[in-house]
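Q: Sequence in, structure out?
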Amino acid sequence: MAEHLSQSELDYPFKLLEYLNGFRISKAIFSACELGVFELLLESEKPLTAGEMAQKLGTSEDGLERLLDLLVAIEILNVEVVQGTAYYNSTDVANLYLAKSSPKSLHTSIIYQSQTIYPLWNNLADAVREGKNQNEKTFGLPSEEIFSAIYRSEDEMLKFMGLMNSTWVIDGHDIATAFDLSGFKSIIDLGGCSGALARELAKEYPSSTVTVLDLPDVIQSALRHFAQEGDTIRFQEGDFFDGEIPSADLYILARIVHDWKDDKNLKLLRKIHTACNTGGGVLIAEALLFENRRGPTVAQMFSLNMLVQTEGKEHPPSHYTHLLNEAGFRDVQVCRTGKSYDAILALK
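A: Exactly. Output:
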């Protein structure tokens, strides 16, 4: 680390201290979302004082004021002091991504991070020691039954679906347009959850039929809570690991492969290859590591998250190329989007 730092950083560890305090910043944003801070400011027609907000949100004025001031310091909120009284209002970024009612809101993702991921990461050292996820220690659930832990109640399933929905609302367009997919007339999003990525695909390729295939409980929840007026995507109940995979031109595996070990992924990819129409293919969306192991930081963090929560990990492109070739696919192409998730396309 030292070889990349200037002398000023060696004299005083500004960057290191920023990293060490990062969890406090995350939890401040998480807490503000949970308390309803950003939604209140979005709905307000004028800036509000900490006292006014505390009364509406049911918090202490002192505690809320401290939280608001930190959010101002990290430029998520604005403040103006008039005759000794502080008036707070939201930034455009907070209104767009943190207010619950915004169409691009990350609110449900943040709630999941706060209430599920954050407790798991408290046991990161144990995960590294043991080399396995921490579902048992954190939630009292068997480490082998990954999605039994993730879907341990309807409320938890909806939180996870909200996380996935938020992910593809902001990243889905980049995945849908990473390659020209207009030649694939039937597309199945395996494990497509709420349908957010499928909607992006349907908007970009209106002449293609796009189907979400997921477990029955997930499909029913998607129809109840995430369906949109004018939806052109289809929903189909099924289990792509243990059940039949319908034939199609293109299969989407978005944030699926990184959950599992290679033997299970290879079995799935071979199954997809068999079901795939001639000339078809598979599109994998994951956070790709660099081959030199130097990042990206987000992908490395995701890989650690796979350790604490699942049985999988993130990989560089060469790993996916090897898996796809072994499963029978060819012409593997890689597109780094420059965002959180990248795309790999392989043909049958």
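The two ends are 44 Å apart (CA to CA).
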